Amino acid sequence: MPSFDPVSVRADFPILSREIDGKPLVYLDNGATTQKPRCVIDSMSRFFSRENANIHRGVHYLSREATDAYEKARESLKEALRVPASHELLFVRGATEAINLVTHCLAGELHEGDEIVLTIMEHHANIVPWQVLAKERGLRLRFAGLRDNGELDLEEWRSLFNERTRVAAFTHVSNVLGTRNPVGDMTAYARKRGVLTLVDGAQALPHGPVDLGAVGSDFYVFSGHKVYAPDGVGALCGPRDFLNAAPPYQTGGDMIEQVSIEGTTFRAVPERFEAGTPNISGAIGLAEAFRYMAGIDWPAAHAHEEELAAHATRELEKIPGIRVFGKAPDKVAIVSFLYAAAHPHDVGTILDTEGVAIRVGHHCAQPLMQYLEVPATARASFTFYNNHDDVEIFLRAMKKVVRFFG
Ligand SMILES: Cc1ncc(COP(=O)(O)O)c(C=O)c1O
């Protein structure tokens, strides 16, 4: 039975009891990476202590055991994400590699004058690979803007589609504004027009389960390190037939059927796109993180993290000169703000002296910064293991910033 106790959940994350210069760590940089529960750390330690071997190629016991653990990890992730039967889940390094893999696969399918619809709230990972592809193939990129509250302007987004539109790529949740996009409606709109969709799920999955059947995208990507799992591992879910027909992204061991000096034939997915030794322990840690998340009562966890973010937003807005970005009705617990009297880097540096970790800068979303006409923001990103003490210490540290610069 899933449960959520905001007090006991913190004990699952060993790092949260750390002190920074004698002050309790207040970790509000969850948008950049999340902390790992003990069970994830233990699953990887157990793998290296007991099972470590290379996979797929060995006849010995440990290799069979490691292969089994790796493939079970894939199957359990497919189940947790409700990956449709027509789709496969590939292990990759993370969201960035997944999107690069998709643009590589699409290169041969796109022609001069074809169009790709993006949004202005994308992370660079979901802009730059498309820009490179556009340059190579003579494509046109079109960007949908936002409404004043930080929601995607869906009317504008829909108006960008025409007979040349081939792909629509958009984030599930904005890493700067916290806006959650109505991805199911968006993929349905695109599908009706024969347009392929890619959804960047990097900031959505840390805030609860996602049903890929309901999302309905062709491609869905995410990074392990943002979902309480290790770095260097993530996943791409995509249509099996499309991927089997696409040219391999990388070539080498494990992805081949037959190699001779005349040439090579390639295996089907998933191996086709997992050349070389993969991140075996990472896949195991990722599956363990999903198992951990399945034990959380998400409606209760959401209510908790939303209350923290709402409280932080309310109190920040009482400070003269503070502007908070992103007030979409459907948003996750990310609070981006700008203080008129100080550069975000100075804000972040002073908060750090109080043990408070936030992120400052352009958040790998420079087009969004240009759109909002700001150089950077400070971002406090909350998750279910944060608590009211975290918010109070953060707000107290902000008072120190005001005393210094105000
Ligand atoms: C929305 C979004 N997409 C993609 C990425 C890229 O993730 P990674 O660096 O793990 O590949 C991030 C990371 O911040 C992100 O927030």
How would you describe this structure to a colleague?
- This protein is α/β, with parallel strands linked by helices.
- It folds into two domains: 8-30 and 297-405, Aspartate Aminotransferase, domain 1 (Alpha-Beta Complex), CATH 3.90.1150; 41-294, Aspartate Aminotransferase, domain 2.
- The chain is 37% helix and 18% strand.
- The strands form five sheets. A seven-stranded mixed β-sheet has the order 4-10-9-8-7-5-6, with helices on both faces.
- A hairpin with an 8-residue loop joins strand 13 and strand 14.
- The longest helix is centred in the N-terminal third of the chain and has 20 residues, at 61-80.
- The chain is globular and about 70 Å long.
How widely separated are the two ends?
49 Å
Q: What do we call the CATH homologous superfamily of the largest domain?
A: Type I PLP-dependent aspartate aminotransferase-like (Major domain)
CATH class of the largest domain: Alpha Beta
Helix content: 25-40%
Mind telling me which CATH architecture of the largest domain this is? 3-Layer(aba) Sandwich
Strand content: 15-25%
- Point out poorly predicted stretches: none
Structural class: alpha/beta
Give me the count of strands.
17
Bound molecules: pyridoxal-5'-phosphate
Q: Which fold name is given in CATH as the topology of the largest domain?
A: Aspartate Aminotransferase, domain 2
Per DSSP, the total helix count is: 13
* Shape field: globular
